[in-house]
Please model this.
Amino acid sequence: MASVELKAVGKSFGDVHVLSGIDLDIADGEFLTLVGASGCGKSTLLRIIAGLEVQSTGNVLIGGAPVDHLRPHERRVAMVFQSYALYPHMKVFGNIALPLVMSRLNVFERLPLIRMLSPRRHRVMPEIAREVRAVAEQLQIEALLERRPSQLSGGQRQRVALGRAMVRSPAAFLMDEPLSNLDAKLRVHMRSELADLHARLGATFIYVTHDQVEAMTMSSRVAMMDNGVILQLGRPGELYSRPATVKVAQFIGTPTINLLPARVGAGHVVELFGTALPVRVKHAVGSALTLGLRPEAVTAAPVALAARDHQHALVGRLHRSENLGAEHILHVDLAEPASGTLTCKVASEPEAFVDGNRRLALTFSPAACHIFDSDGRRIGDADVQSAAESSVPAPARVAVQ
Amino acid sequence: MATPLALPVPTREPRAVTPLSVLARRIASLLLVHAVLIAGAVVILLPFVWMVITSIKSPPEIFAVDFSLWPKHFSGAENYGHALAKVPLVRFALNGIIVCLGILVVQVLVAVPCAYALAKLRFPGRNALFTLVLLGLCIPIQVPALPLYMGLAKVGMLNTYFAIMMPFFLSVFAIFLFRQFFKGYPDEIIQAARLDGMSEFEIVWRIVVPSAWPAIAAFAVFSFVAHWNDLYWPLIVISDTNLATPPLGMMFFADAESGSNYGALTAAATMLTAPLVLAFLFARRRFIDGITMTGIK
Model:
């Protein structure tokens, strides 16, 4: 078990910068997830930690000591690959035992035929077998030890790959999208099993995924990456409730966050589709803003009812609804003066809100809005104030009906 | 609002499909395909069949004007007996096996690490080296034959097994074939092996090669056939009958012993070809696997 530190790590292939200036402190026993779309550099970063790739700049420290000059196996890290990367011609036992065989026996004790002559091998092999069995027992794969990888299901292969990583008692576990080859149901199951394993081992886990659900459910901290830089690093809840940039907001949460164009109106009030929201920012009057609104923060109501309650809301026409059982996802084409579409998540059937023309009203609390400046950066809470006239608590005065 | 979409309307009514018409069409296509295949097989098999038939005919019948596929007078026993008695066939076959195995073993030992490096390691000049390998495929043995002969003569190595084998130890074809095969080997398994502490040599021989048997078997067939049947190079470096490979031995035999005894000659040829044909039939499945897996078809 050890901490892992990255100091200004960068990687470029010729003129292409895959990673630039990555600083990351991963504490001993932490479960850190690197999340991002494919091509954002997260797998490259993991390979650099493992020593499979060499960084162009910066340093990697494991347990406080620099490991840049060490070869992969000398770094005492174990990796679980997306394809599991089991040795196809070896039985499960051989696969799990290999790291121990490699570290405890010398070249001659591993050579075919000649190894039979080594008395030390006869002493060491039973020890290795004992340790392999102990790991197999923890993962409940003792019955599979004599099978070949081709005879195993995806979930079983996954466990064997985990066993091969665990048997070395590594300083850190590196996992490169280990669940993405499993079917949806098994993935959910393995998710909790991995979280469980982390809790039991108390080891450092560095986990790469493009699936934000995996990142949110398992990690102690999440680093969201894009274009070779870390956009935001924090607890999963922070990335959801206080996304640092538009990209983070778009990546975290399903369905995807709604982004609406807004601007800074007179008196520094945020204007959405020409109507002032009871929110002020310090930015220059006239500059463009983006308003992020999570589908689960929007509530739907019948147009007539919204009008009767003197609540101002966005009005639109229901384009499509998806029934997820416990909830419904509504896709609404916004009506004038607003434009675009808005997604919202509601508990009841859409028939409860729509009128004969499939029109409905959408309301939301201005406090639930994420406000981003024209560069896509979150406008900090210190720079946002509720406007003085916002005496009305929840639903916003947004657009005239 | 999305614009309404429409699927294209077919302009012609599809033809009616009856079970009988389907059956008729299938039979017609089967007949056509098999006619073509059988014609090809006949062209390829005819010399071989001719050899086997001639080996059991009597001398007058071989030169008879009227052609017959099956001999009227069966004299296979004399022909084969004569061949076995007069020609050291076992010696020739043994020489062939020693030479072919020797070549094959060294070729594989050299080509596998080369191919792995070209397929999986990143180093400057890799593409240039691979281009050289491809160029090497274009150079026939006739080109370096003279310098090789002179070199072997200078060190006094003519008339040795080594002289027959040496020019073929480095096979660019093997490097190319294995490189194509290794290209498709998953990188993640190799990286896992590196993390488990294996050296590159161990990765090659203990991880990659066990999966490469189809490719090695395919190459073995190519190599064995080529060097078993090779006459050119042995003819240059071997003059001792005791070291003759099968085709060279046949040539000595045709010149010295049999003269125009074609019955005995073809009997000997049949006996020297048989092991190869049997070996191929035995390894056929693996051979085809290896060829299809390396993408060379």
The two ends of chain A are 60 Å apart (CA to CA). The longest strand of chain A covers residues 16-26.
